[in-house]
Amino acid sequence: MQETNTVEIKKQIEDRTFRRYVLSVNSGQEDLVLENLKERVVRQWLKDDVIEILNPKINEVSVKKWEKVIKQKRLYPGYLFFKSRMNDKIWYVIRNTPWVRLIVWADTHPVPLTDEEFNQMMQQIKASEDSSDIKVPFKKWDLVKIKSWDFKDMKWNIISVDAEKWLITVSVEWLGQLTPTTVWIDTVEIAQ
């Protein structure tokens, strides 16, 4: 019976099929861990076994000084993904890389992501690359401060947001009555 258990454990840890796994790493250290892992894979002669290491990022579009700015944002902060065969050596090298906390779902052996989970993540990344929508941190009825003009630092409610034109309409009190006034998105900030 013990011989059967040993064979099963050996079989689980020596999976020759390429599968995707999730690593939990120290948040903010993802790029450093990625480079460190790539270097270790080369040094340990594992390039044929570990074929892909990902730090998935999506595009985040915003407006600054009337310019459209695209920044890369981590899709899953604190996590990396890798595609690999699995054996004792690979498991040891990855677990003992600095700033790697653990292989997610790994207790006695690593559990891979399903193809469905990975495809869902890749669709999210693809959608962000295709998207040119501007993410506006404001919505109707938010209380904002205008950072310029005569109304500087006065607080007003947003009555409409036009992300395509980078404009926000606020309700400004002018000569005793509320008047809709349109301003650039980057000239307002959320009021504290």
List keywords for this structure.
192 residues; alpha+beta; Alpha-Beta Plaits; SH3 type barrels; 5-stranded antiparallel beta sheet; 4-stranded antiparallel beta sheet; 4 helices; elongated
Note the run of SSEs as H and E. Answer: HEHEEEEHEHEEEEE
CATH superfamily of the largest domain: NusG, N-terminal domain
What percentage of residues falls in helices of 4 or more residues? 25-40%
Query: Judging from the principal axes of the Cα atoms, what is the shape?
Result: elongated
How many beta strands in the DSSP annotation?
A: 11
Give the number of domains.
2
Assign the CATH topology of the largest domain: Alpha-Beta Plaits
* Coarse structural class: alpha+beta
- Give the second-level CATH assignment, the architecture of the largest domain: 2-Layer Sandwich
User: What does the main sheet amount to?
Assistant: 5 strands, antiparallel
How are the secondary structure elements laid out?
Layout: H1 2-13, E1 15-25, H2 30-43, E2 50-54, E3 57-64, E4 67-74, E5 79-86, H3 88-95, E6 100-103, H4 115-130, E7 143-146, E8 155-162, E9 167-174, E10 177-184, E11 188-190
Antiparallel strand pairs: 1-5, 1-6, 2-5, 3-4, 7-8, 7-11, 8-9, 9-10
